[in-house]
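Supplementary Methods S3. Input chains for the assembly prediction are listed below.
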Amino acid sequence: MGVEPEEEGVLAEEEDAARAMEPLDAGAVGGSGGCNPGVPTQISSSRVIAHVDLDCFYAQVEMISNPELKDKPLGVQQKYLVVTCNYEARKLGVKKLMNVRDAKEKCPQLVLVNGEDLSRYREMSYKVTELLEEFSPLVERLGFDENFVDLTDMVEKRLEQLPSDEISSMAVSGHVYNNQSVNLHNITHVRLVVGSQIAAEMREAMYGQLGLTGCAGVAPNKLLAKLVSGVFKPNQQTVLLPESCQDLIHSLNHIKEMPGIGYKTAKRLEGLGISSVHDLQTFSLKVLEKELGISVAQRIQKLSFGEDNSPVTPSGPPQSFSEEDTFKKCSSEAEAKAKIEELLSNLLNRVCHDGRKPHTIRLVIRRYSDKQCGRESRQCPIPSHVIQKLGTGNYDATTPLVDILMKLFRNMVNVKMPFHLTLLSVCFCNLKALNAAKKGPMDCYLTSSLSTTCHSGKRSFKVKDTHTEDLYKEKEA
DNA sequence: TGGGGTTAT
DNA sequence: ATAACCC
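Predicted structure tokens for the full assembly:
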């Protein structure tokens, strides 16, 4: 599979793929390991990726629930924050994550609804993902309101079905970034144009079937698709042609705006004098590796060029369920127990609905004065007899689970000393299908009841659960 | 900064 | 178990 002569807009990604095929380029592969030299690896042709981003998602869900809110400025409140708001409210100066007081001051007519219970948002979120999965199975969720879809195969199939004389009459759907003109003699352009048409169909389906509006970006990789989806903002879509890639990434005013470069990394980069995309592009990779580690350094410097070869990884069903609550102060064991019981009760309903069984439970706390993001957690396996009781809609599991959670609690918090917590969270994870057998060559000889009680030591996790028995030994402080 | 999520170490 | 990232 060679590069066609008409593919003038060769993408950086393709060059990377080609380079990685060269036998002696050890540095560039960097631990990707597992190379199978005997198997012919397909050199990936350029991909077509869509990023779909719902407009002010929580507010949209609220307006669908209660249409009277539709033409009013609406904010969704969690604790003392307006976490999101509709466009009416934005016109009047309300911003995301704005303090309720500031928001009311800016906009006294602002209508607020409480959005601390995420149930309806979560349900609508999965409806969107499922709708997109009808277009392609390769859908990756990012939070509740964004999805990536790999359209490469769909585009390929549509082009195979298309009489070649019809290519000349194709038209892009939505905006083209930079107003760049489409060249239908360029196969890369043609594929992205087909991608834009599919993106338009996805947005139409979202509106027609779910009543939701959103933006889409279509580009050769996830980074670029995500960046370009936000260019025209509510309810519009934009396609990025490769020739405008550098313009797009240089439109960022600061590296912190690059998805993948978060708060911590941005701070460390600033310490190196790196603040713009251009700074990061031209900075010594060796020095960057020393500061951030080889993996992060190589990845983010590639990002700075608009290169991102990360695949769209199908999310599938969630890997964990959690419920959390923040508060000003929790300083007694009884208080904590009451909150934990409520979190657990909600979680049990969700897990029951899911059908799979969690095999691990985790408790998370945040202590007051702990600067920020300072969370501590303890987890342990859920005893198999308790797992059996889950999902039947009964309460047989709650008492043993509360007991376990309170042991985890006392393992973290010395209740004989004063304490001050500002967050409690309970998480179910390590979800397995019903009666899932343990992986191993002997599986076919084990009954499901045996398999859940035998050699639980053979787990592939790096995280070691606290053994449930260990929790019975109270912690000495 | 809320109430969630994921992956890497 | 924590730390980073995403929304």
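The radius of gyration of chain A is 26 Å. Residues 1-44, 439-465, 467-477 of chain A have pLDDT under 50 and may be disordered.
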